[in-house]
């Protein structure tokens, strides 16, 4: 199982703040997971249409798209943080 967390506009588009999902076959990296997410429906397609617009943390550590994902991981998706 993967614990997925969504923040800010990612949460708004997916319609939820978190969910637990079984790691899909063929999903080995963050990039694989984002591609799988984009195929889950309209809101997910919109949220994950441009992976470059998202930041990701695996187990509360910022990672890149090539980072591996494994059962038991907590994966958070959020937009870049800007200061003012």
Main attributes of the structure:
84 residues, Ubiquitin-like (UB roll), five-stranded mixed beta sheet, 3 helices, 25% strand
Kindly describe this structure.
The protein has helices at residues 9-14, 30-38, 42-47; strands at residues 2-6, 18-21, 55-58, 61-63, 74-78. With 84 residues, it is an alpha+beta fold. It starts with a strand and ends in a 6-residue tail after the last strand. The mean pLDDT is 94. The longest helix is centred in the middle third of the chain and has 9 residues, at 30-38. The chain is globular. The protein has a five-stranded mixed sheet with strand order 2-1-5-3-4.
Write the layout of secondary structure elements.
Elements: E1 2-6, H1 9-14, E2 18-21, H2 30-38, H3 42-47, E3 55-58, E4 61-63, E5 74-78
Parallel strand pairs: 1-5
Antiparallel strand pairs: 1-2, 3-4, 3-5
């Amino acid at each position: 199982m993967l614990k997925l967390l969504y923040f800010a506009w990612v949460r708004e588009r997916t319609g939820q703040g978190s969910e637990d999902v079984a790691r899909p076959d063929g999903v080995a990296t963050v990039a694989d997971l984002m591609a799988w997410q984009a195929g889950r429906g309209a809101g997910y397609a919109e949220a994950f249409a441009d992976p470059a617009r998202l930041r990701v943390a695996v187990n509360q550590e910022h990672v890149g798209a090539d980072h591996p994902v494994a059962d038991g991981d907590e994966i958070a998706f959020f937009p870049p943080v800007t200061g003012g």
